[in-house]
Amino acid sequence: MSTEILNVNTKWLKWARTSVKYEKDDVASKLNVTPEKITEWEETGKLTPNELMALSDIYEVSPYTFFDGNDPVYDDEILDFRTVNSKKISLTPAIMFELRRAKENRDTLLNFEDDFDDFEFPLFSLNTVDSDNPIIVARTIRNLLKISRANSHRKLDYWINLIESLGVLVFEFYNIEPEQLRGYALYYDKLPIIGINHKESNNAKKFTLFHELAHLIIKKEGISNINEYSFINNDEAYCNKVAAEVLLPNDLFQKYIGVNPSFKKFKTEDIKRLSQIFYVSKQVIVRRALDLGFITSNDYNNRISEFNEYINPPKENNSNKRVNNKSQSKDNKPKDLDKGLHNKAKMALRKNGNYFTCLLIKAYEEELITDVDMALELKVSLEVMSKILSIIDEEDLYVFS
Q: Which pTM does this prediction carry?
């Protein structure tokens, strides 16, 4: 066993842990050491190569980071709008790693812009919209993106592509529960970022998309769990109103209820049916009903437990949907392998977004990067990368000509 002792920059050791909200106890538990050992490393900078590599893996940074002679620069804290029962909840390492991943993807594209003439990204299309009235902002969005009843049934990819057409990077994340984080918005004049939680229903993701777009429009980035009925923060309430008005304008909803008065009581079955008719979440239906006075504050208070189920719906039990793969014949293995690659490729596309992925493909086709570089940026194997290229071609997902 090597007894070599390395001397690293203690400031970077501390930065690597605190920048992703790890407590010393968390790191110590992962390494099977005491919290005092973490303190010792951060105060002395003396540790073995194996200890350094272990910390590098946990903090998801290059081991060379710890030898940087400069002082680390801490990012400004992003506004945190998340609450549970009106109380702030703590940021987690999973959330911080997701935000870091999103920023690193954006930095990759900006490096292309600095290095190659063919890469020049436009400013965010809606960065000049200025209105205190969410109805006007929503109308501007609907007109620009040509949103109507005729396309309200379209799948989630359609809505993501609409947002990306504005020069926005849209990423989905998989490893965080919706009650912890439903979405985030990181504002930049060029290539701003929206993140949405893959674990939500498609209609809920649509709402999150436009909620976060509203954040970008008012240039107030933040992370949200978007409690539809919590108005503690004015910016969150504003963004909720914009998103609801984009997906289901008040005048359209009022007219529909006017000619279909059977829905006016907004019973549970009414809310569910209206959600299906307008292709929006049940939350949006309740929000519209409140805005238009179909449901009074007393109605809401009397049915609060029912409405809260729309905010945090119970998870589905998928145990009955599992298939016993052992019974499959050997003849099915090639098909299963292809299906597995296809699923991994689709997941990578959702995580990285069509916009980011297609721009990497453009750089590859212009021989600015290799296939290995492209796979490393997307964090997939070359085999999955090949399947991503096939999906892009088959589904005509290119976002540039």
A: 0.88
